[in-house]
Design goal:
Layout lengths: L2 H11 L4 E4 L4 H4 L2 H4 L3 E4 L3 H14 L6 E5 L3 H15 L4 E7 L13 H4 L6 E4 L6 H13 L6 E6 L27 H10 L3 E5 L1 H6 L2 H11 L3 E3 L14 E4 L6 H9 L2 E5 L17 E6 L13 E4 L2 H16 L7 H23 L8 H11 L5 E5 L3 H9 L19 H12 L4 E7 H7 L3 H6 L5 E6 L14 H7 L3 E5 L5 H13 L4 E6 L13
Parallel strand pairs: 1-2, 1-3, 3-4, 4-6, 5-6, 7-8, 7-10, 8-9, 10-11, 11-12, 13-14, 14-15, 15-17, 16-17
Length: about 525
């Protein structure tokens, strides 16, 4: 067999279902992936392919590790952003870019994935010895699957792909969980039980560990409110009486109120990275930080106590200790905490009602979010919002109730990221309605891949908030995106009347259920108001 066929066989044995990217790469060109039973998907832009694999990983709790492939040279140069984004968001897949032939690998100015991707991948290796293909890919998949999950990379020089080798005997890799130090649990439970106003901050690690039940049980035992990071949004049901919503640039009012008053903050499955798109940790709090990656502890926020381990195992250990200590006794504050959250939420939503239900034209973007929140079946939806105002409108006002029903992100993020995320989500969960809200800046970055959705039968629901301007930068844009969607083989509809927003969304959902990707273009006002603590 040759190296190309060996790689395809390894991918199949590892359970890879999709090879996504762009030719020229023999895994596509020689039909090797398809012959191994892997679905090849060619995108219009390389980074969208990486975003799709990111989305697959995120909505499967990191269990589906896919594969990305692209051309040497320009393909690898174009792919950096998508792989860097997946690295920042801890999304695992294995990237297999082609490289220049071994004789030319180090000839200036040829682009080397091995050198240039080292800071945005968990591991980066170059396959120069064809006979080591099995061990190199085993290392890549092992790294991607275990610990803090992130992309791994194996660059294959283009002359290596067609080298003949002996038949490969490959055993798939496995995943392992790490538990926290059991001796540290009692002291941390002391702190949690002694706190008068504890707050739990749950991150994406709760999703990857599938620790949703344990998180809810701990919150109810402690009778403590729960905030999530934007990556962790949907880790705790936002219709639960103890939910504070997701911390972001724009967030529910109750989150900041309770965080300011907290005497202890327990971060579980989060990095506590200081970012404009996360919670701002006030000074003077007792901080307990539990994460899978020890490198995050004390990185931005100084912790008083720490635990390193899988979120599910950590929460289970803490829950067992708390339950034993309480012995079925109530803390006696559940109703008071829940009533206070409900009162703050009621006043906050009352202050925003005029925007959420506005009848003005152009349509207020908050009206679109309000109708999405009201119309969509939360048990059947996976949603995301793109960078910029779309994120800020959606994060506080689109309520999610089911685990993995929202794909958020926590660091700097490329415009157009969400299209690939939801295409990946739809591949992983074809039974779900996968919804992406973006602005007219984002669609300009990756919009051509709407054609990929049509060509590959990936019926996503795209919502474009078109105010003919790039956010607050006063840069005019133009375009008729609904017509564009029709020209690309999907369904497009332009909506100008606020009173028809809900029915347009309903039509869009039905079209996606019938197998057609949909783009709904809402002509919106240049809204700038955000739900910020300093404004509330």
């Amino acid at each position: 067999m040759n190296v190309t066929d060996a790689i395809a066989d390894i991918l199949a044995r590892e359970g890879v279902e999709h090879l996504i990217g762009f030719p020229s790469n023999p895994l596509f060109d020689d039909n090797a992936a398809a012959e191994a039973g892997i679905r090849p998907i060619v995108v219009r832009q390389e980074r969208t392919g990486a975003h799709m694999l990111d989305g697959i990983a995120r909505v499967t709790s990191g269990e589906q590790v896919g594969a990305f492939a692209c051309q040497h040279g320009p393909g690898t140069e174009n792919s950096v952003g998508g792989i860097a984004q997946a690295y920042a968001e801890s999304a695992p897949f294995v990237a297999i870019p082609a490289g220049y032939s071994r004789a030319k690998t180090n000839t200036d100015p040829k682009f080397s994935s091995l050198i240039n991707y080292q800071h945005v991948t968990k591991t980066a290796e170059q396959l120069t010895d064809p006979e080591s293909v099995d061990e190199m890919f085993r290392r890549a998949f092992q790294a991607a699957r275990n610990g803090r999950q992130r992309p791994s990379l194996v660059e294959v020089p283009k002359d290596v792909f067609r080298e003949e080798i002996d038949e490969v005997e490959y055993t798939p890799t496995s995943s392992a969980r790490s538990a926290p130090d059991p001796n540290a649990i009692p002291e941390i439970v002391d702190v949690l039980l002694d706190a008068d106003d504890p707050v739990i901050n749950a991150g994406q690690g709760v999703h990857y560990a599938e620790a949703w039940d344990e998180l809810q049980e701990l919150a109810e035992l402690l009778e403590a409110p729960v905030a999530t990071t934007l990556n962790g949004k949907s880790a705790f049901p936002e219709d639960h009486p103890l939910s504070l919503g997701a911390g972001s640039k724009s967030e529910p009012r109750a989150l900041n109120r309770f965080l300011e008053r907290a005497d202890a903050v327990f971060g579980i499955g989060c990095s506590f990275t200081t970012t404009a798109y996360g919670i701002t940790m006030p000074d003077g709090k007792t901080v307990i930080h539990s994460t899978l990656d020890a490198g995050d502890i004390d990185k931005d926020v100084e912790s008083d106590y720490s635990l390193v381990g899988d979120a599910k195992l950590t929460l289970a250990a803490i829950v067992d200790e708390v339950r034993d200590r309480l012995d079925d006794d109530s803390r006696g504050r559940f109703d008071d905490v829940a009533d206070e959250i409900a009162a703050i939420d009621e006043a906050w939503l009352g202050d925003w009602e005029d925007k959420l239900t506005a009848d003005e034209t152009p349509i207020n973007p908050y009206r679109v979010v309000y109708e999405l929140d009201r119309v969509l079946d939360k048990g059947e939806v996976i949603a995301t919002a793109d960078a910029g105002n779309a994120r800020d409108f959606m994060a506080p006002f689109f309520e999610v109730t089911e685990p993995l029903s929202y794909v958020g992100w926590g660091k700097t993020t490329q415009l157009g990221y969400g299209l690939g995320l939801m295409m990946g989500a739809k591949l992983a969960h074809p039974e779900k309605t996968c919804v992406h809200v973006m602005g007219d800046g984002a669609i300009g970055m990756t919009g051509m891949d709407f054609e990929t959705a049509a060509r590959e039968d990936i019926p996503v629901l795209e919502i474009v908030l078109n105010n003919f301007e790039m956010a607050s930068y006063d840069t005019p844009f133009s375009g008729h995106y609904a017509d564009f969607a029709e020209s690309m083989g999907g369904y497009g509809e332009r909506v100008e009347d606020p009173n028809t927003v809900a029915e347009a969304i309903q039509r869009g959902v039905e079209k996606t259920k019938a197998g057609t990707p949909v783009l709904l273009e809402f002509l919106t006002s240049k809204e700038t108001a955000l739900s910020r603590p300093d404004l509330d």
